[in-house]
Amino acid sequence: MENVRNHVDVKLLTKWDGRYGAEAMIVKPAFHSRSVFAENLIAVELRKRDEVQQVDLHRYTRHIESLLVRISTMSIRYHTVSRQM
User: Fold this and answer.
1) CB count, 10 Å around CB of 46?
2) Apex CA 25: angle with CA 24 and CA 31, to 5°?
3) Would you call 22 exposed, middle or buried from its count of C-beta atoms within 10 A (0-12, 13-18, 19+)?
4) CB neighbours of 3 closer than 8 A, spacing ≥ 6?
C-alpha cells in the first residue's frame, strides 16, 4: 500500500513573474525548497497539507461564514429599528 504522506508537489517553472511564476510559488506558505537547473528552468517543491488540517480548515471556515451572516443580519435589524424611533 502506498504512503500518501510521502507524496510531494513539484512545479517546473520557466518564468519568474506572474500568477504562476516562480516568485508566486516561493511566497506560498507551502513552499519547501527550490532547484535551479538553468537560467529559465526552476523546480519548486511544495509541501502537501495533511487531510486532517484541510478538513478542520473547511469546518472552521464554514463556521466563520455563518457567524458573519448572523452579525450582518443583527446589524441590519438594529439599524432599521433605530431609524424607526
Assistant:
1) 17
2) 135
3) buried
4) none
Residue 13 near residue 42 (C-beta atoms within 8 A): yes
Q: What is the pTM of this model?
A: 0.53
- Grid coordinates 433605530 are at which residue? 82
At 52 the pLDDT is 47
The residue type found at 34 is R
Angle at Cα 14 formed by Cα 10 and Cα 18, nearest 5°?
Answer: 95
Cell numbers standing for residue 6:
510521502
Give the contacts of 20 (CB within 8 A, at least 6 positions apart): 13
* Banded pLDDT at 8 (limits 50, 70, 90): confident
- 29-84 pLDDT, tens digit per residue, is 888 899 999 989 999 998 876 654 555 566 677 777 777 888 888 777 766 766 66
